[in-house]
Amino acid sequence: MIKDIQCYPEMANPQLRPRYSGLASFFRTPLVDQLDGVDIGVIGVPFDGGVTNRTGARHGPRAVREQTTLVRRYNQASGVGPFDLARVADLGDAWLEQPYELTAALKEIQAFFDKVHQSRVVPLSVGGDHSVTLPILRALAKERPLGMVHIDAHCDTGDDYLGSRFHHGAPFRRAVEEGLLDPKRVIQIGIRGSLNHPDMWQFSHDRGMRVVYMEEFTDRGWRWAAEEARRVAGSGPTYLSFDVDGLDPVFAPGTGTPESGGLTMVEAQRLIRELAGLDFVGGDVVEVSPPFDPSGLTAQNAANVLFEILCVLALAFKQRQGAV
């Protein structure tokens, strides 16, 4: 190290240095390209080939990575210190050699996460559009189907669109069809917005997913929604997927498919905190599209949502180790 630390020896830890200094990494954790010594790996997935309208989410990981440098080490509200509970590192990006060939791109993403999963590293990912969750689930759910807590404006259980079955409006239909998700252990929270067809999300209902429309959420509250998520997900392995369009556009204008009337940041943060104790084996934040938000607000809020997810992932990791 060229810089000699003379006054503050604790600054040997990069997370304690001035937040404007150094190269950006997720939460100012070590940027590594090896999986040894990592418990939770934060990963960018810069791909938006599954977007049906407004592209730009490929730039999401870089923007969110930058904003996570503002996040400190401890969650003041919950008391959780995720970096004390698990060895967290930035594993870089699952970048693609064939981003213009959709099925090949999804296979590339899966191959990256296959290696992560085989090394028993818990992945926390930043998209990219929501189609990236499908190959992540293909890697994580090889041994058994997972439950899922899904926060979003859309169920994402559509079907073929303009000649493709693999786009950001259909990953969870494909995941159920492929046996990656147990639909009776899936809850989808915050669903709202206009539709092209009245039965657009009928697949979710037909397969037994618990769909919490925004009207029910606002009537019954975030605490009830968390209790319902616990009931649905149960004690089995569970994935947590957060689409930033689940937030109201006031908090997340930089996304491809904004829908008015969504969750506030306080509701989102308190909801995720209340999920602590579920057996989360992975999670993601997706659909941050910086070109639609020059202010950086969307990426900043996504970074804080990512931190809340990191906290519950770290707790789940420690629980599996028998240490919490």
CATH names the topology as Arginase, Chain A
Note the overall shape.
globular
Helix content: 25-40%
Count of beta strands: 8
User: What is the CATH architecture assignment?
Assistant: 3-Layer(aba) Sandwich
Q: Structural class of the secondary structure composition? A: alpha/beta
Radius of gyration: 19 Å
Spell the H/E element sequence.
EHHEHEHEHEHEHHEHEH
What percent of residues are in strands? 15-25%
Distance between the termini: 36 Å
**Low-pLDDT segments:** none
Domain module count? 1
Summary, kept brief:
The chain has 324 residues and is an alpha/beta fold.
Provide key terms for this protein.
10 helices; alpha/beta; single chain; 31% helix; Arginase, Chain A; 324 residues
Molecular structure report:
This protein is α/β, with parallel strands linked by helices and 324 residues long. It has a single domain, classed as 3-Layer(aba) Sandwich (Arginase, Chain A). The chain contains 10 helices and 8 strands. The protein has helices at residues 60-68, 82-85, 102-118, 133-140, 171-177, 202-206, 214-220, 222-233, 265-273, 297-320, and strands spanning 40-45, 88-93, 122-127, 146-151, 181-191, 210-213, 238-243, 280-286. An 8-stranded parallel sheet has the order 2-1-3-8-7-4-5-6, with helices on both faces. Strand 5, helix 6 (202-206) and strand 6 (210-213) form a beta-alpha-beta unit. The longest helix is centred in the C-terminal third of the chain and has 24 residues, at 297-320. The mean pLDDT is 95.
